[in-house]
Amino acid sequence: MKTNKIFTLLTCFALVITSISCKKNDEVKPDEKNNITLEFDNQVGSDEMTLGTGSYKNSSGEDFTITTFNYFISNVSFKKSDGTVVKFPNDYFLIKQSDSESFEATLKDLPVGDYTEVSFTVGVDSARSVSELSQRTGVLDPASYGTDNMYWAWNSGYIFFKFEGTSSVVPSDAAGKRVFQYHVGGFGGMTTKTINNLRTVTLPLPTSATVRSNIAPEIHLFVDAAKVFNGTSTLNLATTFMVHSIGAAVPIADNYKTMFSVNHVHNDVQ
């Protein structure tokens, strides 16, 4: 009987110690930080995006294939459950369907906490667009894009979004190809009369991203290219197939703002 009582007491003591230990491990320490990653999964409706070979239809029933799908992400911010917002104004990412290594955008040293919302800009803000070349390195280097050039030398500005492909409804060009090109830029400049095609996307998270010293969350986003044709307005390839001017790109920018959604959040212990 005494042995059983001693065993029971030892068991209870162990449970108390374990409980205290767990509470200490779960405790949020404000001075600690960790990374958080946005993972962009480009799709067309519910279909996986495949460059060159994938065949899709837009909301008007027009067939198309995709050869290029690139966009800039910048000015990322995260909102905590208490309303606090943490901003990353100096991080710029170029997501390219042709480069799987570009699909993940990692933001470093986010303070620990429970985050319920993510926000970001599609494009490159005006301040950085007109800054000295020494401040535009990495993905912002105008000379770094090769065949995926994302900078208008003639317009001194970045192409925020580049969507190219082919469609049977597009008229043939001189080479006999039926090509469409949507190039969107235009950061607004210094006057209210200048067109601004920068778009901010704000998304609630289905579950909180719990940043801890041992947890670096991953937020998985779906990016639906079909929304480019039917986000807030309907675009037909038969009539709108070659867009390179800032003014003509406004409906495209309004549409692609709607193509982002959060599918799920990973809060895996490292």
UniProtKB/TrEMBL annotation:
Protein name, as recorded: MbnP family protein
InterPro entries named among the record's database cross-references: MbnP-like_dom
Superkingdom per UniProt: Bacteria
Entries under Pfam families matching the protein: MbnP
Domain Copper-binding protein MbnP-like span(s) in chain numbering: 34-234
PROSITE patterns xref list: PROKAR_LIPOPROTEIN
